[in-house]
Amino acid sequence: PAARKYTGMVEDCCCDYETVDSINEEVLHPILQDLVKLPFFRYFKVKLWCDCPFWPDDGMCRLRDCSVCECPENEFPEPFKNPYSGLSPDSMICQEGKPQAAVDKTLDSKVFKGWVETDNPWTSDDETDNNEMTYVNLQLNPERYTGYTGDSARRIWDSIYKENCPKYPSEELCHEKKALYKLISGLHSSISVHIAYDYLLDESTNSWGQNLPLLYDRVLKYPERVQNLYFTYLFVLGAVTKAADYLEQAEYNTGNPEDDLKTQSLVKQLLYHPKLRSACPKPFDEAKLWQGENGPELKQEIQKQFRNISATMDCVGCEKCRLWGKLQVLGLGTALKILFSVDGDYHLNQPLQLQRNEVIALFNLLNRLSESVKFVHEKGSSIEEVIKEQ
Ligand code: FAD
């Protein structure tokens, strides 16, 4: 095998690259792949109508018809369930006319019961707004190439980086701002990796496959983007590990005892796997942050910035990108809530409480990051040769 490109500790984390790759490939990736297919984790509740608070004039967001359908279950027209079967691409004016960008919705509201409504100070989503929410089957809507690009996409990323988490100057020692930048950059890398992993290679034959030059141009060429992907992965894994007791005891009830037992058992396997517990027991050390004099103010400032990022997701002009953008930002917000709003299991003497949707987002985000880390590790060291040959 080619020499490893990344060695040593992942910056600001507590595990090294080799360990991350081995626990990911041997333990976490296989468990997560099974877990996200189970009913509890595959339905995500989301408000998909883009209610952009920042650019009301945005061309994409003016199109109310952008969504495939947002009607009650009994009115849900059969052909709309599968955008490939009933709709001609021309009828989907949003997502720049690309059917692959549309969301394939499945309603299964019986899956959702028994969890409390609770606030997350890090995100702007209002989960109680039930009229506006739809359930999406994530298994039918993989994050992949959608054709969303150009000014609209660029504007979102630019605004996130410029306004909310400016790249830190190297001399600045504020770990907290640096961490926020790295989280977003790591998520951005992961999205790019998924685009490269599942790309529309030939529109005329509808053939999909890997686009390695794109993987190289957008991610692997920039070591910092790879490092930030590993950072984000360990950050989210750190949150999952910290909330292990809560997550182990949570209700994974969807009305199907067989599936639900499987869910519980896989969650437990993941949380307490001996290899994870011995090789990387504390993936991220949150105690290092917010310790300075201005800790509390800084936390509020960064919380506000993150809420802005969360609100920006409503401006993403492609429905499937918006779905995954919202899910993954909620997942990051949940990781932030676990690591920073809670002291041990308690926050201001309140026990940690998560919404069902937060837990779904957290594990699906971890799975996406795990897939990205695996693909980057597999292709990372040999890709320059592959690119030269093409
Ligand atoms: P972009 O990826 O748009 O990057 C813009 C600029 O940001 C780059 O020029 C670079 O300066 C900087 N940058 C790039 N990567 C990083 C990084 N990792 N860290 C720091 N800075 C970086 N498209 C799809 O096909 N499928 C999707 O599921 C999808 N989901 C999206 C979700 C969101 C929330 C957003 C905002 C966009 C999504 N897109 C998706 C669009 C996609 O991310 C790109 O914007 C698009 O493919 C155009 O890519 P680009 O080459 O112009 O660079």
3D structure, described in words:
The chain has helices spanning about 15-35, 40, 85, 150-165, 175-195, 210-220, 225-240, 245-250, 255-270, 275-280, 295-310, 320-340, 355-380, 385-390, and strands at about 45, 135, 200, 205-210, 345, 350. With about 400 residues, the chain is mainly alpha-helical. The chain is about 50% helix and about 5% strand. The two termini are about 20 Å apart. The protein has 14 helices and 6 strands. The longest helix is centred in the C-terminal third of the chain and has 25 residues, at about 355-380. Flavin-adenine dinucleotide binds near residues 189, 316 and 324. Flavin-adenine dinucleotide binds near residues 148, 153, 185, 189 and 320.
Give a concise summary.
By secondary structure, the chain is mainly α. It has 14 helices and 6 strands.
